Amino acid sequence: MRRTLELLSVQLRASVMLAVQYRLDFVLDLFIGLFWTVAAVLPLFVVYGGAASRGVPGWTFGETLLVVGCFITLQAVIDGAIAPSLSTVLDHVRKGTLDFVLLKPHDSQLLVSISRFQLWRSAGLVHAGIVFGLGFRELGHGPSLLGVVEAALLLLVATWMLYSLWLVIASVAFYAVKVDNLSSLFTSIFDAARWPKTVFRGAFRFAFTFVIPLVVMTTFPAEALLGRLDWATLISSVVGAAALALCARLFWLASLRKYTSAGG
Amino acid sequence: MSLRAVPALLKVGFAEAVAYRTEMVVWVLSTTMPLVMMLLWTSIADEGTVRGQTGAEWSSATFVGYFLCVFIVRQVVAAWAAWEINFEVRNGSLALRLLRPLHPLIAFATSNLAYLPLRTLVTLPVAIFVVVTHREALSTDWRAWLLFPVTIFGAWAINFFVNAAVGALSFFADSSLRVMDAWFAFFFVFSGYLVPLEFFPEWLRTIAEALPFRFVLALPVELMTARVTFEQGLPLVLQQLGYVTALGLLALGLWRRGVTRFQAFGG
Question: What ipTM is given for this predicted complex?
């Protein structure tokens, strides 16, 4: 465990050094990140604005802002911590340089998972904070302490799920070499998570709850903040995430056995 | 004249598109945003008709027609030369293109256009679905449908010239692709991609109508769905072609200045 934390701190330091080397990029990225947040929130104002629009069925403006807040939080986590590391796996497999990771005396899944961080993306967390603030101001009351704890737990669960799904995508690289755009397919599906669950009906609701659990990731934490989440949902979310993580781990190990390196 | 090479280049580009067909299908599938927005708006409209800021009524079926047309147009007018140019400038392989007796921008444009038949084929099922099930959402004016291909070409040309201009920026700065990200962020908001422009409040719509983004998507879509009539469309098409010319000149100018800075890497 101590060794794991040591490794993590080394990688974080390396990422910080890399980030301060490219200062202009850093500033540009901050601005573009702001644009994306505005682009995420703007449709909301249109959906709820105007006399004739009633907004998403069953969700008020403030409540939907909480869902968007969860969405922006998770997007920052994906772009900052999950995607950069795991997309290096795709490169490693294609070039055969995964050898160097496998030779190191530590668990390979851990090593590839912490290999790169894009720390400026954490600016997204600030944006999310602002959106949460707007949401609660609109609602006129703050969350209960229990609600905050539950929501934090659920966001961790969501991170765990996203990590597992990404690990599965990275593992597919061992079978099909060209999967760069598989990851962009996932990113674009994740865009659907910015809306509360009532937007999805019928087969979509089922798919986004149980197959690609977007509803679990953003609607459930928002419901927790609103004090509407029951214990059974919370517990089954945790169990579901654990099952997903286990499957992803097994798939990673099975895929590693497929790895044959490349070149000479 | 070097333009004689274009048919051959188109053939090569088409073969390339066929070779990478799975990759292309995944790219097409990644365009899920219009479909998500369709789910959102239909869930709202099913509770009762929605009224735009201009007073027009939108039923659930209107939204389905609109967003499926958005999906189709987005596929057909796509351009991606910025990434190709950036890649070739950075690894030096652009040197090979510069040796050929054909302007590199023409080569990039033809390879982009060569994907068109296959992309159209992929969107065909969606188009048939719209025609069969949501015909009332489509324009019945044949003159609008004559104007439609022109707007599609204009939309693609704007996309391509922006790509070319940003690609040419990579002669000057390494991180030019970030400009493309910024373009997309604006495109999402101001082109009618997420929200039909009619739903914007007055002041925001005025801004959106002046910017180039609506000419890349909203104009052809609104012609298809009769939101814009033939008479309203004509001056808009002229405005669109104005943007095409301006951006084309910008791209050529940037390219001409930038290419003198090019130094091939490697040997």
Answer: 0.79
